[in-house]
Amino acid sequence: MKFVRFERDGTEYLAVEQNGALHGLPVTDRAFPGTLDDLIGDAEALAAAGQTLAAAPALSDAGARYLPPFERSGKILCVGLNYSDHTEESGYDQPDYPTIFARFSSGLIAHEAPIVRPSLSETLDYEGELVAVIGTPASKVSEGTALDHVAGYSIFNDGSVREFQHVTPQWTLGKNFDNTGAFGPCFVTAGDLPKGALGLTLETRLNGAVVQSAKIDQMVFSVAKLVSILSQSMTLMPGDLLVTGTPSGIGAARKPPLWMKAGDVCEVEIEGIGVLRNRIVDEPAKAANAA
Q1: Is 249 domain-assigned?
Q2: Which of 11, 240, 256, 280 is least enclosed, having the fewest CB within 10 Å?
Q3: What phi and psi values does residue 158 have, to the nearest 5 degrees?
């Protein structure tokens, strides 16, 4: 099932996409099955919700405002240097252990929402990535059973302010500017995609030009490896997000650098999941002055 969360006229909806059409219900409907945050820990309830929504009336997306698929994720764990060609272009040695940093929900935006370039820096970069969503608690699980704990997948654009990413040894600051973490447009259940999303192609486009293209298979640490490794130190919980890393082609590695600027449109597409599209805008002067 491909689930889509959106808002229209102040009311939230949850829908499933079927043959290009959305079928779903508003939260105000008595038959509303619950939000994805409510359902993600119960595979049977999630499947039943999909059936309920699929049987609901078709919905027009006119006037709809997309929302991130999840908003109550306890952990958003991001993986750096997870494609060897990206590691090389970034000037690092390939690590033997995943490079982990955190993102916070305060910086997340949805499909079609603007990515905001902060006034503090012009070094706003794109990073197209696959998101794996945890469905059942995972603690000290093996690589062989790790995918049993993944409920499904989505898409992320890890908008990175490079100047601030490298101002400290930790990357957290440059990875958490407001309105830079694009997430969506949908959540696709694991059973509707190849196991571990292997074989799928990830492509990032800036103003229609392809700037990143890779197979998910090229990840140094697969989704199964990441779930297993991370679960050795922390219990991964339903709704936790694993943002699995970006391939080569980032703007920072180009000569001259290719930074995102106001008016640009960045799209991240993963076959079988969809296209995450965001326009770039400059931070409003009032907000910049207040800072």
Answers
A1: yes
A2: 256
A3: -85, 75
